[in-house]
Amino acid sequence: MRLLLHICCARCAIYPIIRLANDFEVTGYYFNPNIHPTTEYLARGEALKEYARTKGLHLIIGEYNPRAYFNEVYSYQGDRCEACYRLRLGETSRLSKELGYDYFTTTLLSSPYQKHDKIKKIGEEIAKEIKINFYYEDFRPGWKESQKIADEIGIYKQKYCGCIFSEYERYEKKVNRFTHSF
Q: ∠165-35-93 over CA atoms, to 5°?
């Protein structure tokens, strides 16, 4: 069975790739128009390309179009993360169906920092809509192992989820102190 694995970054991909290789022929898909700035997108992508090369993982690089991300987030009436998940999982499911994969899933399910239940729900909804299988597994138990492996082999470590909003939230208190320091 063939599975298209949406990958947010190399560090989050380690455990899912190991785990899924037991049951699937896995292809990685780097589609992340949410990552900002472009230098961060490129750093994560290069780290993933190198990791995929060392593991013999076939990797598809999707279009980087931050305008599509911003349009999606600003037109969405709910949680910005939900809009982002829908955009990335929607494109992953569409491509998996187009290329004849049996399943799709995402490495977002490995991070303890993501909204796991929302990702699962959105994946299942999209799968039902376009009639393709969403493979659900909670990859979080392998998170610490993935991070240890990533540190040992020197994989680039990002400091935020990737979007401009999460980058801002990292420094929000400092920005507020700065703007109110006069």
A: 115
**Rounded Cα gap, residues 42 and 36, in angstroms:** 10
Say if CB 6 and CB 29 are below 8 A apart.
Answer: yes
pLDDT tens digits for 139-152? Answer: 999 999 999 999 99
List the chain residues with pLDDT less than 70. Answer: 181-182
Contact 104, 129 (CB under 8 A): no
Task: List own/partner pairs for 160-165 with CB under 8 A and 24 or more apart.
Answer: 161/34, 161/113, 161/114, 162/8, 162/9, 162/32, 162/34, 162/35, 162/36, 162/40, 162/41, 162/44, 163/34, 163/35, 163/36, 163/69, 163/73, 163/80, 163/84, 164/36, 164/37, 165/80
pLDDT at 170: 85
Read off the pTM: 0.94
Residue-wise pLDDT for 108-132, tens only, equals 999 999 999 999 999 999 999 999 9
Q: How many other CB atoms are found less than 10 A from the CB of residue 117?
A: 8
* Residue ranges of domains in the chain, CATH in brackets: 2-179 (3.40.50.620)
